[in-house]
Amino acid sequence: MPDPWGRYLQGLRTGYGEERAEHIPTHITLMPPTPVEPENLTPLRRHLAEVAARHPRFEVLLRGTGTFRPISDVVYVQVANGVSSCERLERAVRAGPVSRVLDFPYHPHVTLVHDRPPAVLDRAFADLEAFTCAFTASSFRLYLHGGDEVWRRVEDYALTG
Description:
Blueprint: H1 5-15, H2 38-54, E1 58-67, E2 74-81, H3 83-94, E3 109-114, H4 118-127, E4 132-137, E5 139-145, E6 151-158
Antiparallel strand pairs: 1-2, 1-4, 2-3, 5-6
């Protein structure tokens, strides 16, 4: 997520009491957290570069809120435009050397609050119901989690297809 929107939404997320969000950059997930063996990191990076070279930039519109409740205690900002492009990228990323079965069908979104009390989830849902922003998705990013609750930026992949 480009700034100022990324920084703004991350600030809201920490403001709702999700302290770990300080170390989670605002994003639209293409692949959920997935263990990667060290020997698979280079092939994964090569695959991601190939995926980026095949997919063009696209416009994203975020608008309003949604929730995965009661299945999961998550409130998110909805992707109103760019859904099909996110879906194509997600399928391509997951078809590489590091793949995984999804627990739920893929649904592009920007998480606002996760695993907080119902009153906090309700407040976040109401606070951002009129939120809207637009930007061009010109790249995607690989992050690695080292077990210390910090997501570290590894590489950006420009969408050039």
